[in-house]
Amino acid sequence: MLVRGFKGMQTALVVLYLAVLLLLCTYGLHRAHLVYLCFRHRKQLRAAQLPEHVPNDRLPVVTVQLPLYNEATVTGRLLDAVAKLDYPVDRFEIQVLDDSTDETQLIAKEKVSELQRRGLNASYIRRADRTGFKAGALDFGLGRARGELVAVFDADFIPQPDFLRAVAGHFADSGVGMVQTRWGHMNRDRSLLTSVQALMLDGHHLVENRARCAAGLMFNFSGTGGVWRAAAISGAGGWQHDTLTEDLDLSYRAQLCGWRFIYRPDVVTPSELPEEMSALRAQQFRWAKGTVQTARKLLRRVLAAPLTRAQRLEACFHLLPHFAYPLMLLLSLLLLPALLLMPATNFATMLLIDLPLCIGATGSLVAFYIEAERAQGNTGWRAVARLPVLIALGAGMSPHLTRAVLSGLSSMAGEFVRTPKRGSRKGRYRQHTQLPWAEAALAVVSGASVAASISTAHWFAAPFAALFMLGYGYVFVLVLEEQLGRGPLAARSAKTASLRRTGSAAASAEGMAHAA
User: Fold this and answer.
1) HEC readout, 413-440
2) Counting beta carbons within 10 angstroms of the beta carbon of residue 505, is it exposed (0 to 12), middle (13 to 18) or buried (19 or more)?
3) Candidate list 98, 156, 247, 249, residue with the active-site label
4) Which residues, 6 or more positions from 265, have their beta carbon under 8 angstroms from its beta carbon?
5) Dihedrals φ, ψ of 339, to 5°?
6) Which of 99, 154, 202, 249 is catalytic?
7) What sign does the dihedral 179-401-365-388 (CA atoms) show?
Protein backbone atom coordinates (compact mmCIF):
# COMPACT_ATOMS: atom_id res chain seq x y z
CA MET A 1 0.00 0.00 0.00
CA LEU A 2 2.80 2.41 0.89
CA VAL A 3 4.61 1.64 -2.35
CA ARG A 4 1.41 2.13 -4.35
CA GLY A 5 0.72 5.43 -2.56
CA PHE A 6 4.25 6.62 -3.18
CA LYS A 7 4.00 5.81 -6.88
CA GLY A 8 0.64 7.59 -7.08
CA MET A 9 2.11 10.70 -5.45
CA GLN A 10 5.09 10.52 -7.76
CA THR A 11 2.83 10.27 -10.82
CA ALA A 12 0.69 13.20 -9.68
CA LEU A 13 3.81 15.27 -9.08
CA VAL A 14 5.20 14.46 -12.52
CA VAL A 15 1.90 15.36 -14.20
CA LEU A 16 1.61 18.69 -12.35
CA TYR A 17 5.27 19.52 -12.89
CA LEU A 18 5.09 18.82 -16.62
CA ALA A 19 1.81 20.77 -16.91
CA VAL A 20 3.43 23.85 -15.36
CA LEU A 21 6.46 23.45 -17.62
CA LEU A 22 4.26 23.06 -20.68
CA LEU A 23 2.35 26.26 -19.90
CA LEU A 24 5.57 28.19 -19.26
CA CYS A 25 7.06 26.85 -22.47
CA THR A 26 3.94 28.11 -24.28
CA TYR A 27 4.84 31.62 -23.15
CA GLY A 28 8.38 30.90 -24.32
CA LEU A 29 7.18 29.79 -27.74
CA HIS A 30 5.17 32.99 -28.00
CA ARG A 31 8.30 35.06 -27.39
CA ALA A 32 10.06 33.05 -30.08
CA HIS A 33 7.13 33.69 -32.42
CA LEU A 34 7.44 37.45 -31.90
CA VAL A 35 11.12 37.23 -32.84
CA TYR A 36 10.11 35.27 -35.94
CA LEU A 37 7.60 38.00 -36.85
CA CYS A 38 10.39 40.58 -36.64
CA PHE A 39 12.44 38.41 -39.02
CA ARG A 40 9.52 37.73 -41.34
CA HIS A 41 8.62 41.42 -41.60
CA ARG A 42 12.21 42.66 -41.60
CA LYS A 43 11.75 44.50 -44.89
CA GLN A 44 8.82 46.48 -43.50
CA LEU A 45 10.76 47.14 -40.30
CA ARG A 46 13.79 48.35 -42.23
CA ALA A 47 11.67 50.64 -44.38
CA ALA A 48 11.38 54.15 -43.05
CA GLN A 49 8.11 54.73 -41.23
CA LEU A 50 8.39 58.45 -41.78
CA PRO A 51 5.18 60.28 -42.71
CA GLU A 52 5.01 62.75 -45.52
CA HIS A 53 6.20 66.26 -44.70
CA VAL A 54 3.35 68.52 -43.63
CA PRO A 55 3.83 72.30 -44.04
CA ASN A 56 3.31 74.49 -40.98
CA ASP A 57 -0.02 75.86 -42.13
CA ARG A 58 -1.45 72.33 -42.43
CA LEU A 59 -0.11 70.87 -39.19
CA PRO A 60 -2.90 69.74 -36.86
CA VAL A 61 -3.45 71.47 -33.53
CA VAL A 62 -1.94 69.42 -30.69
CA THR A 63 -2.77 69.43 -26.99
CA VAL A 64 0.13 68.24 -24.82
CA GLN A 65 -1.24 66.75 -21.60
CA LEU A 66 1.04 66.43 -18.57
CA PRO A 67 -0.67 64.53 -15.71
CA LEU A 68 1.07 65.23 -12.38
CA TYR A 69 0.70 63.88 -8.87
CA ASN A 70 3.36 64.87 -6.34
CA GLU A 71 6.20 65.16 -8.87
CA ALA A 72 8.26 67.98 -7.33
CA THR A 73 11.60 66.49 -8.40
CA VAL A 74 10.81 66.36 -12.14
CA THR A 75 8.05 68.90 -12.88
CA GLY A 76 10.36 71.78 -13.79
CA ARG A 77 12.45 69.58 -16.08
CA LEU A 78 9.37 68.26 -17.85
CA LEU A 79 7.91 71.71 -18.52
CA ASP A 80 11.25 73.05 -19.72
CA ALA A 81 11.44 70.19 -22.24
CA VAL A 82 7.85 70.67 -23.46
CA ALA A 83 8.51 74.39 -23.94
CA LYS A 84 11.28 73.48 -26.42
CA LEU A 85 9.01 71.45 -28.72
CA ASP A 86 9.59 72.55 -32.31
CA TYR A 87 6.01 73.18 -33.38
CA PRO A 88 4.10 76.32 -34.43
CA VAL A 89 3.17 78.15 -31.24
CA ASP A 90 -0.35 78.81 -32.48
CA ARG A 91 -0.89 75.11 -33.14
CA PHE A 92 -0.14 73.52 -29.79
CA GLU A 93 -1.23 74.01 -26.20
CA ILE A 94 0.11 72.65 -22.93
CA GLN A 95 -2.19 71.31 -20.20
CA VAL A 96 -0.63 70.75 -16.77
CA LEU A 97 -3.14 68.40 -15.11
CA ASP A 98 -2.07 68.66 -11.50
CA ASP A 99 -3.64 66.50 -8.79
CA SER A 100 -0.73 67.08 -6.41
CA THR A 101 -1.02 67.60 -2.67
CA ASP A 102 2.56 68.83 -2.06
CA GLU A 103 4.90 71.57 -3.30
CA THR A 104 4.48 70.33 -6.87
CA GLN A 105 1.49 72.69 -7.06
CA LEU A 106 3.64 75.78 -6.53
CA ILE A 107 6.38 74.58 -8.87
CA ALA A 108 3.89 73.79 -11.63
CA LYS A 109 2.00 77.09 -11.26
CA GLU A 110 5.21 79.12 -11.41
CA LYS A 111 6.43 77.21 -14.47
CA VAL A 112 3.11 77.63 -16.28
CA SER A 113 3.21 81.38 -15.58
CA GLU A 114 6.75 81.51 -16.95
CA LEU A 115 5.70 79.69 -20.14
CA GLN A 116 2.75 82.04 -20.56
CA ARG A 117 5.07 85.05 -20.31
CA ARG A 118 7.14 83.48 -23.07
CA GLY A 119 4.10 83.41 -25.34
CA LEU A 120 3.20 79.71 -25.04
CA ASN A 121 -0.40 78.56 -24.67
CA ALA A 122 -0.02 76.83 -21.31
CA SER A 123 -2.70 76.25 -18.68
CA TYR A 124 -2.61 74.95 -15.11
CA ILE A 125 -5.63 72.71 -14.41
CA ARG A 126 -6.74 71.31 -11.06
CA ARG A 127 -9.76 69.17 -10.25
CA ALA A 128 -11.92 69.24 -7.14
CA ASP A 129 -10.83 65.68 -6.31
CA ARG A 130 -8.65 62.88 -7.70
CA THR A 131 -11.50 60.71 -8.98
CA GLY A 132 -10.24 58.26 -11.59
CA PHE A 133 -6.59 59.10 -10.85
CA LYS A 134 -4.57 59.52 -14.07
CA ALA A 135 -7.45 58.46 -16.33
CA GLY A 136 -9.74 60.95 -14.62
CA ALA A 137 -7.20 63.76 -15.04
CA LEU A 138 -6.71 63.02 -18.75
CA ASP A 139 -10.45 62.90 -19.31
CA PHE A 140 -10.96 66.16 -17.41
CA GLY A 141 -8.33 67.88 -19.52
CA LEU A 142 -9.65 66.43 -22.76
CA GLY A 143 -12.98 68.16 -22.19
CA ARG A 144 -11.11 71.47 -22.21
CA ALA A 145 -8.62 70.71 -24.99
CA ARG A 146 -8.70 72.34 -28.40
CA GLY A 147 -6.27 69.95 -30.09
CA GLU A 148 -7.20 67.54 -32.85
CA LEU A 149 -4.30 65.46 -31.52
CA VAL A 150 -3.40 64.77 -27.89
CA ALA A 151 0.16 63.97 -26.77
CA VAL A 152 0.65 62.52 -23.28
CA PHE A 153 3.85 62.56 -21.22
CA ASP A 154 4.37 61.28 -17.69
CA ALA A 155 6.35 63.51 -15.38
CA ASP A 156 9.66 61.63 -15.66
CA PHE A 157 9.77 61.82 -19.49
CA ILE A 158 11.75 64.40 -21.45
CA PRO A 159 10.21 64.86 -24.92
CA GLN A 160 12.75 65.87 -27.54
CA PRO A 161 12.24 69.07 -29.59
CA ASP A 162 11.33 67.23 -32.82
CA PHE A 163 8.80 64.89 -31.19
CA LEU A 164 5.56 66.44 -32.47
CA ARG A 165 6.83 67.05 -35.99
CA ALA A 166 8.11 63.47 -36.18
CA VAL A 167 4.70 61.91 -35.53
CA ALA A 168 2.03 64.48 -36.45
CA GLY A 169 2.22 63.70 -40.16
CA HIS A 170 0.96 60.15 -39.60
CA PHE A 171 -2.46 61.55 -38.80
CA ALA A 172 -2.88 62.75 -42.39
CA ASP A 173 -4.16 59.18 -42.77
CA SER A 174 -7.68 59.44 -41.37
CA GLY A 175 -7.58 55.83 -40.15
CA VAL A 176 -4.67 56.35 -37.75
CA GLY A 177 -5.84 56.70 -34.17
CA MET A 178 -2.59 56.59 -32.18
CA VAL A 179 1.18 56.72 -32.67
CA GLN A 180 3.37 55.23 -29.94
CA THR A 181 7.08 56.01 -29.71
CA ARG A 182 9.91 54.23 -27.93
CA TRP A 183 10.96 54.86 -24.34
CA GLY A 184 14.59 55.70 -23.65
CA HIS A 185 16.25 55.11 -20.28
CA MET A 186 18.45 57.88 -18.91
CA ASN A 187 19.55 55.87 -15.88
CA ARG A 188 19.82 52.42 -17.43
CA ASP A 189 23.47 52.05 -16.31
CA ARG A 190 23.00 53.43 -12.79
CA SER A 191 22.73 49.98 -11.21
CA LEU A 192 22.21 46.32 -11.96
CA LEU A 193 18.51 46.75 -11.18
CA THR A 194 18.02 49.58 -13.69
CA SER A 195 20.03 47.82 -16.41
CA VAL A 196 17.82 44.74 -16.18
CA GLN A 197 14.65 46.88 -16.21
CA ALA A 198 15.92 48.63 -19.33
CA LEU A 199 16.49 45.29 -21.03
CA MET A 200 12.97 44.14 -20.13
CA LEU A 201 11.40 47.33 -21.50
CA ASP A 202 13.56 47.18 -24.62
CA GLY A 203 12.12 43.73 -25.22
CA HIS A 204 8.61 45.14 -24.98
CA HIS A 205 9.25 48.09 -27.27
CA LEU A 206 11.71 46.64 -29.77
CA VAL A 207 10.34 43.13 -30.13
CA GLU A 208 6.70 43.07 -29.04
CA ASN A 209 5.61 46.46 -30.38
CA ARG A 210 7.64 46.21 -33.59
CA ALA A 211 6.41 42.68 -34.32
CA ARG A 212 2.77 43.44 -33.60
CA CYS A 213 2.73 46.65 -35.59
CA ALA A 214 4.50 45.13 -38.61
CA ALA A 215 2.23 42.05 -38.60
CA GLY A 216 -1.01 44.02 -38.31
CA LEU A 217 -1.71 42.78 -34.77
CA MET A 218 -3.12 44.84 -31.92
CA PHE A 219 -0.72 46.59 -29.57
CA ASN A 220 -1.15 49.31 -26.98
CA PHE A 221 -0.48 52.90 -26.09
CA SER A 222 2.12 52.67 -23.32
CA GLY A 223 0.60 55.40 -21.17
CA THR A 224 3.17 58.03 -22.15
CA GLY A 225 5.34 59.04 -25.09
CA GLY A 226 2.52 58.74 -27.61
CA VAL A 227 0.00 60.84 -29.53
CA TRP A 228 -3.72 60.16 -29.88
CA ARG A 229 -6.30 61.47 -32.28
CA ALA A 230 -8.87 63.07 -29.96
CA ALA A 231 -11.69 61.57 -32.06
CA ALA A 232 -10.29 58.07 -31.46
CA ILE A 233 -10.41 58.58 -27.70
CA SER A 234 -13.97 59.88 -27.66
CA GLY A 235 -15.15 57.40 -30.29
CA ALA A 236 -13.91 54.48 -28.21
CA GLY A 237 -15.73 55.66 -25.07
CA GLY A 238 -13.12 57.99 -23.60
CA TRP A 239 -10.72 57.45 -20.71
CA GLN A 240 -12.21 55.01 -18.20
CA HIS A 241 -10.91 54.20 -14.75
CA ASP A 242 -12.39 50.81 -13.92
CA THR A 243 -8.94 49.26 -14.48
CA LEU A 244 -5.48 50.33 -13.33
CA THR A 245 -4.15 50.20 -16.91
CA GLU A 246 -6.36 52.81 -18.55
CA ASP A 247 -3.91 53.01 -21.46
CA LEU A 248 -4.23 49.32 -22.34
CA ASP A 249 -8.00 49.43 -21.88
CA LEU A 250 -8.49 52.41 -24.21
CA SER A 251 -6.05 50.96 -26.74
CA TYR A 252 -8.09 47.80 -27.23
CA ARG A 253 -11.41 49.63 -27.28
CA ALA A 254 -10.10 52.01 -29.95
CA GLN A 255 -8.70 49.23 -32.12
CA LEU A 256 -11.94 47.27 -31.81
CA CYS A 257 -13.63 50.40 -33.20
CA GLY A 258 -11.39 50.16 -36.27
CA TRP A 259 -8.67 52.69 -35.49
CA ARG A 260 -5.16 51.78 -36.67
CA PHE A 261 -2.06 52.22 -34.51
CA ILE A 262 1.52 52.96 -35.59
CA TYR A 263 4.73 52.28 -33.68
CA ARG A 264 7.80 54.47 -34.20
CA PRO A 265 10.91 52.84 -32.68
CA ASP A 266 13.14 55.58 -34.13
CA VAL A 267 11.49 58.34 -32.08
CA VAL A 268 12.89 57.99 -28.56
CA THR A 269 11.83 59.89 -25.44
CA PRO A 270 14.26 59.64 -22.47
CA SER A 271 12.72 58.65 -19.15
CA GLU A 272 13.66 57.39 -15.70
CA LEU A 273 13.54 53.84 -14.38
CA PRO A 274 12.72 53.10 -10.73
CA GLU A 275 15.96 52.86 -8.78
CA GLU A 276 14.53 51.14 -5.70
CA MET A 277 13.13 47.62 -5.52
CA SER A 278 10.12 48.87 -3.54
CA ALA A 279 9.21 51.34 -6.28
CA LEU A 280 9.68 48.72 -9.00
CA ARG A 281 7.46 46.27 -7.15
CA ALA A 282 4.70 48.89 -6.79
CA GLN A 283 4.90 49.77 -10.48
CA GLN A 284 4.86 46.13 -11.61
CA PHE A 285 1.98 45.32 -9.24
CA ARG A 286 -0.13 48.08 -10.81
CA TRP A 287 0.71 46.95 -14.34
CA ALA A 288 0.01 43.29 -13.57
CA LYS A 289 -3.27 43.91 -11.72
CA GLY A 290 -4.47 46.38 -14.35
CA THR A 291 -3.67 44.04 -17.24
CA VAL A 292 -5.65 41.24 -15.61
CA GLN A 293 -8.54 43.67 -15.02
CA THR A 294 -8.43 44.70 -18.69
CA ALA A 295 -8.51 41.05 -19.73
CA ARG A 296 -11.58 40.51 -17.55
CA LYS A 297 -13.23 43.54 -19.10
CA LEU A 298 -12.40 43.09 -22.77
CA LEU A 299 -11.14 39.61 -23.63
CA ARG A 300 -14.56 38.15 -24.42
CA ARG A 301 -15.31 41.16 -26.59
CA VAL A 302 -11.99 40.70 -28.40
CA LEU A 303 -12.64 37.01 -29.03
CA ALA A 304 -16.11 37.79 -30.41
CA ALA A 305 -14.91 40.64 -32.64
CA PRO A 306 -14.46 40.23 -36.42
CA LEU A 307 -10.70 39.79 -36.17
CA THR A 308 -8.31 37.31 -37.75
CA ARG A 309 -7.31 34.21 -35.82
CA ALA A 310 -3.78 35.61 -35.47
CA GLN A 311 -5.13 38.85 -34.00
CA ARG A 312 -7.29 37.02 -31.46
CA LEU A 313 -4.46 34.69 -30.44
CA GLU A 314 -1.98 37.52 -30.04
CA ALA A 315 -4.53 39.50 -28.02
CA CYS A 316 -4.81 36.58 -25.60
CA PHE A 317 -1.05 36.49 -25.07
CA HIS A 318 -0.98 40.28 -24.80
CA LEU A 319 -3.70 40.44 -22.14
CA LEU A 320 -2.65 37.36 -20.13
CA PRO A 321 1.16 37.57 -19.79
CA HIS A 322 1.22 37.97 -16.02
CA PHE A 323 -0.23 34.52 -15.44
CA ALA A 324 3.32 33.32 -16.06
CA TYR A 325 4.22 34.58 -12.56
CA PRO A 326 1.94 32.19 -10.63
CA LEU A 327 3.29 29.41 -12.85
CA MET A 328 6.88 30.41 -12.07
CA LEU A 329 6.08 30.52 -8.36
CA LEU A 330 4.47 27.09 -8.55
CA LEU A 331 7.46 25.72 -10.47
CA SER A 332 9.88 26.87 -7.79
CA LEU A 333 7.74 25.12 -5.17
CA LEU A 334 7.41 21.90 -7.19
CA LEU A 335 11.10 21.70 -8.01
CA LEU A 336 12.23 20.48 -4.59
CA PRO A 337 9.81 17.52 -4.27
CA ALA A 338 10.38 16.66 -7.94
CA LEU A 339 14.12 16.44 -7.36
CA LEU A 340 13.72 14.39 -4.19
CA LEU A 341 11.11 11.95 -5.50
CA MET A 342 12.73 11.47 -8.91
CA PRO A 343 16.51 11.26 -8.54
CA ALA A 344 18.48 11.21 -11.80
CA THR A 345 19.14 7.47 -11.67
CA ASN A 346 19.06 7.26 -15.44
CA PHE A 347 19.46 9.53 -18.44
CA ALA A 348 15.73 9.43 -19.28
CA THR A 349 14.78 10.88 -15.89
CA MET A 350 17.33 13.65 -16.29
CA LEU A 351 15.87 14.51 -19.69
CA LEU A 352 12.35 14.56 -18.21
CA ILE A 353 13.16 16.90 -15.31
CA ASP A 354 16.24 18.90 -16.24
CA LEU A 355 16.24 19.45 -19.99
CA PRO A 356 12.74 21.02 -20.29
CA LEU A 357 13.61 23.39 -17.46
CA CYS A 358 16.85 24.37 -19.18
CA ILE A 359 15.37 24.94 -22.64
CA GLY A 360 12.07 26.45 -21.50
CA ALA A 361 13.76 28.96 -19.22
CA THR A 362 16.50 30.18 -21.55
CA GLY A 363 16.04 29.42 -25.23
CA SER A 364 13.29 31.86 -26.13
CA LEU A 365 14.56 34.51 -23.73
CA VAL A 366 17.97 34.51 -25.40
CA ALA A 367 16.44 35.02 -28.85
CA PHE A 368 13.96 37.62 -27.57
CA TYR A 369 16.45 39.91 -25.87
CA ILE A 370 19.16 39.48 -28.48
CA GLU A 371 16.63 40.79 -31.01
CA ALA A 372 15.92 43.75 -28.71
CA GLU A 373 19.64 44.59 -28.60
CA ARG A 374 20.11 43.98 -32.32
CA ALA A 375 17.27 46.39 -33.12
CA GLN A 376 19.26 49.13 -31.36
CA GLY A 377 22.37 48.37 -33.39
CA ASN A 378 24.09 46.58 -30.50
CA THR A 379 25.48 43.08 -30.24
CA GLY A 380 23.50 40.46 -28.38
CA TRP A 381 26.19 39.84 -25.77
CA ARG A 382 24.86 42.61 -23.53
CA ALA A 383 21.52 40.81 -23.33
CA VAL A 384 23.12 37.38 -22.81
CA ALA A 385 25.27 38.71 -19.98
CA ARG A 386 22.23 40.09 -18.14
CA LEU A 387 19.92 37.18 -18.83
CA PRO A 388 20.69 35.24 -15.60
CA VAL A 389 19.89 38.35 -13.55
CA LEU A 390 16.71 38.94 -15.56
CA ILE A 391 15.53 35.36 -14.89
CA ALA A 392 16.40 35.69 -11.21
CA LEU A 393 14.55 39.01 -10.92
CA GLY A 394 11.49 37.52 -12.64
CA ALA A 395 11.48 34.66 -10.15
CA GLY A 396 12.03 37.01 -7.22
CA MET A 397 9.06 39.17 -8.28
CA SER A 398 6.74 36.19 -8.81
CA PRO A 399 5.15 36.07 -5.30
CA HIS A 400 4.35 39.81 -5.36
CA LEU A 401 2.99 39.69 -8.91
CA THR A 402 1.02 36.53 -8.18
CA ARG A 403 -0.81 38.58 -5.54
CA ALA A 404 -1.39 41.25 -8.19
CA VAL A 405 -2.91 38.67 -10.56
CA LEU A 406 -5.20 37.36 -7.84
CA SER A 407 -6.20 40.91 -6.90
CA GLY A 408 -7.00 41.70 -10.52
CA LEU A 409 -9.14 38.58 -10.76
CA SER A 410 -11.11 39.46 -7.65
CA SER A 411 -11.64 43.22 -8.04
CA MET A 412 -11.78 46.01 -10.58
CA ALA A 413 -10.30 49.53 -10.27
CA GLY A 414 -8.27 50.24 -7.13
CA GLU A 415 -5.81 52.93 -6.07
CA PHE A 416 -3.40 54.18 -8.74
CA VAL A 417 -0.07 54.08 -6.86
CA ARG A 418 2.38 56.40 -8.62
CA THR A 419 5.98 55.35 -9.15
CA PRO A 420 8.37 57.63 -7.22
CA LYS A 421 10.69 59.65 -9.49
CA ARG A 422 14.29 60.47 -8.64
CA GLY A 423 14.68 63.62 -10.73
CA SER A 424 16.78 66.33 -9.14
CA ARG A 425 16.38 65.13 -5.55
CA LYS A 426 16.99 61.48 -4.89
CA GLY A 427 15.05 60.31 -1.87
CA ARG A 428 12.33 63.02 -1.97
CA TYR A 429 9.68 60.33 -2.53
CA ARG A 430 9.91 56.86 -1.03
CA GLN A 431 7.75 53.81 -1.67
CA HIS A 432 6.76 52.09 1.56
CA THR A 433 5.88 48.41 1.46
CA GLN A 434 5.61 45.37 3.70
CA LEU A 435 8.75 43.30 4.13
CA PRO A 436 8.77 40.35 1.69
CA TRP A 437 8.86 37.47 4.15
CA ALA A 438 7.40 35.09 1.55
CA GLU A 439 10.39 35.79 -0.70
CA ALA A 440 12.74 35.07 2.21
CA ALA A 441 11.06 31.71 2.84
CA LEU A 442 11.16 30.85 -0.86
CA ALA A 443 14.88 31.69 -0.97
CA VAL A 444 15.39 29.03 1.72
CA VAL A 445 13.25 26.50 -0.18
CA SER A 446 15.15 27.21 -3.39
CA GLY A 447 18.44 26.84 -1.52
CA ALA A 448 17.26 23.38 -0.49
CA SER A 449 16.47 22.71 -4.17
CA VAL A 450 20.05 23.59 -5.07
CA ALA A 451 21.34 21.08 -2.50
CA ALA A 452 18.84 18.46 -3.65
CA SER A 453 19.72 18.89 -7.32
CA ILE A 454 23.39 18.30 -6.52
CA SER A 455 22.78 15.32 -4.22
CA THR A 456 20.41 13.66 -6.71
CA ALA A 457 22.64 14.39 -9.76
CA HIS A 458 20.15 16.70 -11.48
CA TRP A 459 23.04 18.79 -12.76
CA PHE A 460 21.03 20.82 -15.26
CA ALA A 461 18.49 21.81 -12.61
CA ALA A 462 21.10 23.12 -10.16
CA PRO A 463 21.83 26.49 -11.83
CA PHE A 464 18.13 27.26 -12.26
CA ALA A 465 17.39 26.42 -8.65
CA ALA A 466 20.28 28.73 -7.78
CA LEU A 467 18.74 31.52 -9.89
CA PHE A 468 15.45 31.10 -8.03
CA MET A 469 17.30 31.29 -4.72
CA LEU A 470 19.28 34.37 -5.75
CA GLY A 471 16.19 36.08 -7.17
CA TYR A 472 14.10 35.63 -4.04
CA GLY A 473 17.04 36.60 -1.86
CA TYR A 474 17.86 39.66 -3.99
CA VAL A 475 14.33 41.02 -3.71
CA PHE A 476 14.18 40.37 0.03
CA VAL A 477 17.55 41.98 0.78
CA LEU A 478 16.92 45.10 -1.32
CA VAL A 479 13.46 45.73 0.12
CA LEU A 480 14.69 45.05 3.66
CA GLU A 481 17.59 47.45 3.15
CA GLU A 482 15.31 50.16 1.78
CA GLN A 483 12.61 49.84 4.40
CA LEU A 484 14.92 49.57 7.40
CA GLY A 485 16.93 52.59 6.29
CA ARG A 486 20.25 50.97 5.39
CA GLY A 487 19.99 51.52 1.64
CA PRO A 488 21.83 54.08 -0.48
CA LEU A 489 19.03 56.61 -0.01
CA ALA A 490 19.26 56.41 3.75
CA ALA A 491 23.05 56.69 3.58
CA ARG A 492 22.70 59.88 1.54
CA SER A 493 20.18 61.29 4.04
CA ALA A 494 22.46 60.42 6.96
CA LYS A 495 25.37 62.14 5.27
CA THR A 496 23.24 65.23 4.68
CA ALA A 497 22.15 65.36 8.32
CA SER A 498 25.74 65.04 9.46
CA LEU A 499 26.86 67.87 7.22
CA ARG A 500 24.10 70.13 8.47
CA ARG A 501 25.21 69.56 12.04
CA THR A 502 28.65 70.99 11.24
CA GLY A 503 27.06 74.41 10.73
CA SER A 504 29.28 75.33 7.76
CA ALA A 505 27.78 77.15 4.79
CA ALA A 506 29.05 74.53 2.33
CA ALA A 507 27.57 71.73 4.38
CA SER A 508 24.24 73.52 4.57
CA ALA A 509 24.17 73.98 0.79
CA GLU A 510 24.77 70.28 0.20
CA GLY A 511 22.17 69.39 2.81
CA MET A 512 19.53 71.52 1.08
CA ALA A 513 20.34 69.91 -2.27
CA HIS A 514 19.62 66.41 -0.98
CA ALA A 515 17.13 67.05 1.83
CA ALA A 516 13.43 66.24 2.15
Assistant:
1) CCCCCCCCCCCCCCCCCCCCCCCCHHHH
2) exposed
3) 247
4) 181, 182, 205, 206, 209, 210, 375
5) -70, -40
6) 99
7) positive
Q: Enter the pTM of the model.
A: 0.87
Identity of the amino acid at 438: A
Residue 299 placed within a domain:
no
Return the CATH number at 210.
Answer: 3.90.550.10
The three-state secondary structure class of 266 is strand
Beta-bridge mates of residue 199: none
Q: How many CB atoms lie within 10 A of CB 459?
A: 12
Cβ atoms of 400 and 433 closer than 8 Å: no
Per the annotation, the verdict on 156 as an active-site residue is: no
Tell me the H-state helices in 305-380: 309-319, 324-341, 347-374
Q: Could you tell me how many residues make up the chain?
A: 516
Q: Can you tell me the distance from the alpha carbon of 39 to that of 58, in angstroms, rounded to the nearest whole number?
A: 37
Strand 176-183 relative to strand 260-269: parallel, antiparallel, unpaired? parallel
Residue-range definition of the domain harbouring residue 89:
43-50+60-273
102 classed as catalytic: no
With contact defined as beta carbons under 8 Å apart, do 112 and 95 qualify? no
* Amino acid at site 123: S
pLDDT computed for residue 281 by the predictor: 93
Residue 55 pLDDT: 87
Are both 95 and 237 inside the same structural domain?
Answer: yes
pLDDT digits over 5-28, tens only?
667 777 788 788 888 888 888 898
70 with 197, same domain: the answer is yes
